[in-house]
Amino acid sequence: MEASPAPATDSTGPTPVPAALRPDSWFKSFFLETASLARFTGRFFKEALLPPYEFEELLKQAFLIGYKSLPLVAITGFIIGLVLTIQSRPTLVRFGAISWLPAMVAVSLVREIGPVVTAIIFAGKAGSGIGAELASMNVSEQIDAMQVSGTNPFNFLVVSRVLAATVMLPVLVVFADALGLFGTFVGVNLQGDVSARLFVTQVFESLEFKDLLPALAKTFVFGWAVGVISCYKGFHSNSGTEGVGKATNSAVVFSIFMVLSLIWWPCS
Amino acid sequence: MTSTLPEKVDPPDTAAAVPGELVVVMAHVKKSFETNHVLQDLSLELHKGENLVVLGRSGSGKSVLIKCLVGLEELDEGQVNILGQDVASLPNAELLLLRRRIGFLFQSSALYDSMTVRENLEFPLRRQPGKRTAAELEALVREALQNVGLEEAMERLPSELSGGMRKRLGLARTLILKPEIMLYDEPTTGLDAITSKEISKLILDVQWIYHTSSIIITHDIDCARRTANRIIVLQDGRCTAQGSFEELASAADPWTRSFFE
Ligand SMILES: Nc1ncnc2c1ncn2[C@@H]1O[C@H](COP(=O)(O)OP(=O)(O)OP(=O)(O)O)[C@@H](O)[C@H]1O
Ligand SMILES: [Mg+2]
Question: Is the Cβ–Cβ distance between B24 and B183 less than 8 Å?
Fold first, then answer.
């Protein structure tokens, strides 16, 4: 052990800024992190295309990820539909446009609010689940154990989870939209009287195919982004229980951030 | 614990000396974590069919040593050659193939928490080339569990097992693939004396029946005495002494001798 004595200037100089707070190191770690995430994404595409394919694990994850988020997503969809309707009513009444209420709420729900809110909830629920699970597998050497038993852990753990998230978020969004519309129907009928048939006619007259398709296409991208980021954070967590907490936390924060930055694409 | 290893011959109670070809060669390996120089110029060899015990103080780098062997930790310097292949230069796919021939018992057991005991054992089997029928899988799993005395825990989750049971399950999972090389990281730590003795016996059985070459890391002198053909002592990242159990127990160096007292 070369235990060289600390330089004398250390104790007399001004208190140094902690390394993590200095701008140069912040930039450095930002770029390193971005590069590492880009490499991770590249590896995902490579391993997703090449065999072996883990169909069984994909199905299992799709079920777990979708099923676990379903109640929360459904309740949120319903409440958003309901609240949006109740809140929009007074304004439309003032302009004498109350008959537009179902159509207006339906369009904003299906085109934007449904996908985005569902994606954010999905980032919180599924993203934290994936981040925590992979991080604790990393900490307890389970990923290493897969590696030494001749299994490719990236393929088994990451590819299956990212694909499951990509496929399941659109399904959840459809559920949320449907319950949102039901919430709207309830909201409309709380203070007025619109028959189910009239409601459905009004809603579907206002919704065009070109509303639905980009909105749904976008949710695949959201799901994929949440999957990749949560897996990345979990897979590259630091050791120790603290590492698991940090990985889970940043999986959620970064996933939500990603969803919010992707909102603008490709809605115009 | 009834050993159902498929052979009539009774294995001997202590390890038999085995000369032979080299299956693991580690040459001048260095490994540091930032300023912590864990391995400094470490070389070792493992012969076919040999049990090599590694002794060393806690934190002396024994676990790092075997992780370097299978490529879980990257080397800073030096070479590792396993079964004639240079580990550092192997492409990913071939490294995975090579690792299927090596068994690794983690110090922490590294059980898959989300899977039951049965699924933990089936996991490596299912990923091997060649389809097995459900009945074959069942038979292999049952045999592996019997070897470590855990048959009754088949449907439980790892979180429902005691520390020693987890250790034994980890051992069963490693042995189920019948690897050519076994790396045991503290196989008997946390076990009672009787179970420790049985595990030592199992290690010998495996060596005897499958001609497995093993590196055994242990603090358990009794286990070392039973299983070792050769012992090396690790100190400050170097191998400071090697020889048979008796040679080292009567070594001139008091530090080496202190392990055996
Ligand atoms: N991933 C890692 N990052 C940083 N340092 C590490 C890492 N793994 C091990 N070390 C350090 O390497 C040294 C050797 O650790 P190792 O786990 O090999 O000890 P050991 O000989 O197996 O001890 P024990 O008998 O207690 O298991 C320790 O000082 C440890 O702090
Ligand atoms: Mg160790």
Answer: no
Ligand number with the minimum distance to the CA of B219: 1
Q: What is the pLDDT of residues A202-238, one digit of tens each?
A: 888 888 887 788 888 889 999 999 999 999 999 998 8
In a domain, A23, yes or no: no
In a domain, A230, yes or no: yes
A97-150 pLDDT per residue, tens: 787 888 888 888 888 889 999 999 999 999 999 999 999 999 999 999 998 988
Say how many C-beta atoms besides its own lie within 10 A of residue A201's C-beta: 13
Contact A145 B104 (CB under 8 A): yes
CA atoms within 13 A on the CB side of A268: 2
Cα distance between residue A116 and residue A222, in whole Å: 8
Inspect the interface and report whether the beta carbons of A144 and B96 lie closer than 8 Å. Answer: no
Note the pLDDT of residue B253.
Answer: 84
Does residue A8 fall inside a structural domain? no
Rounded to whole angstroms, the Cα distance separating A185 from A204 reads 13
* Minimal Cβ distance to A142: which of B67, B110, B124: B110
Between vectors from CA A132 to CA B103 and to CA A154, what angle results, nearest 5°? 45
- Asked if residue A266 has a cis previous peptide bond (ω within 30° of 0), the answer is yes
Q: Partners of B103 in the beta sheet?
A: B182
- Residue B121 to residues B106, B111, B154, B155: CA-CA distances in angstroms? 15, 10, 10, 11
Contacts of B52 (CB under 8 A, 6+ apart): B44, B46, B213, B214, B215, B216, B228, B229, B230, B231, B232
* pTM given for the model: 0.84
Residue with CA nearest ligand 1 atom 20: B59
Range of the domain at A201: 69-264
Which chain B residues have any C-beta within 8 angstroms of a chain A C-beta? 37, 67, 70, 72, 92, 96-97, 99-100, 102, 104, 106, 108, 110-114, 123-124, 127-128, 173, 177
- With respect to residue A105, please indicate whether it lies within any of the assigned structural domains: yes
Alpha-carbon torsion angle B142, B147, B152, B158, nearest 10:
-90
Task: Give B-chain residues touching A142 at CB under 8 angstroms.
Answer: 110-113
Residue A59 CA to chain centroid, in angstroms? 19
Distance of CA A249 to the CA centre of its chain: 13
For B241, the 3-state DSSP assignment is strand
Number of structural domains (chain A) is 1
Q: How many CB pairs under 8 A join A and B?
A: 53
Supply the residue whose CA is at minimum distance from atom 19 of ligand 1: B59
